[in-house]
């Protein structure tokens, strides 16, 4: 008789078969989370966590978005949280981007008509920008929370950076230099064992309003 193989398990020794997950192109199991509104969702949003984090840290924010009828989904990146992989080690940064696009495709098969947004913090912000750059015009917007991006001071002026971000998001067109509109949010956060605090999130809502062909690609 063929020898039975034991089920793949999370770093906490929970079988992946008992948890929401996807298997990436390298055969690694990624733990997933979904926040689905009770009614019909009007948009999809993928949340990309930062280095050393896991997507569960964004539960409070996701709950708030879910209350706005947004279906929020996320996964722990390779080497993070309850996903497989050596801790905080990846062979190529593009693996993160590839996995996000795979998860995105799975969700859009079930919700093909909904607009799709991306949200990323720190390293997750860099992943989000690169993900949007892979499919220009595919996403309706991005929320970037302190993204891990270092602009080239020789070529990336404030307006060029705005135009680049606007160029990879879909939206109505308008005058140059208006690609991103700043939004200020305050979220009371007392979870994650950090004690009461006010987390101020400075976001950028990106719209495709202008694309200067001279805009830098090395942000």
TrEMBL record:
InterPro entries (UniProt xref): AB_hydrolase_1, AB_hydrolase_fold, Hydrolase_4, MAG_DAG_Lipase
Origin species: Marmota monax (Woodchuck)
Coiled-coil stretches: none
One Pfam family named in its UniProt record: Hydrolase_4
Source species, domain of life: Eukaryota
PANTHER family: PHOSPHOLIPASE-RELATED
SUPFAM superfamilies with a match to the protein in the record: alpha/beta-Hydrolases
Protein's name in the database: Serine aminopeptidase S33 domain-containing protein
The Serine aminopeptidase S33 domain, residue ranges: 40-159
């Amino acid at each position: 008789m063929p020898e039975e193989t034991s089920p793949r398990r999370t770093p906490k020794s929970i079988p992946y078969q008992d948890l929401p997950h996807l298997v990436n192109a390298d055969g690694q199991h990624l733990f997933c989370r979904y926040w689905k509104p009770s009614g019909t969702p009007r948009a999809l949003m993928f949340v990309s966590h930062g280095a050393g984090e896991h997507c569960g840290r964004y539960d409070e924010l996701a709950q708030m978005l879910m209350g706005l009828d947004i279906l929020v989904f996320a996964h722990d990146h390779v080497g993070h949280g309850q996903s497989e992989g050596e801790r905080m080690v990846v062979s190529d940064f593009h693996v993160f981007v590839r996995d996000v696009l795979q998860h995105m495709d799975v969700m859009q098969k079930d919700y093909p008509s909904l607009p799709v947004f991306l949200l990323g913090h720190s390293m997750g912000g860099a992943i989000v920008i690169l993900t949007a750059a892979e499919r220009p015009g595919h996403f309706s917007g991005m929320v970037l929370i302190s993204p891990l991006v270092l602009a080239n001071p020789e070529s990336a002026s404030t307006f060029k950076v705005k135009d680049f971000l606007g160029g990879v998001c879909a939206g109505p067109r308008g005058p140059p230099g208006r690609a991103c509109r700043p939004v200020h949010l305050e979220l009371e956060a007392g979870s994650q064992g950090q004690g009461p605090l006010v987390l101020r999130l400075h976001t950028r809502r990106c719209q495709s309003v202008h694309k200067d062909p001279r805009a830098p690609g090395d942000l």
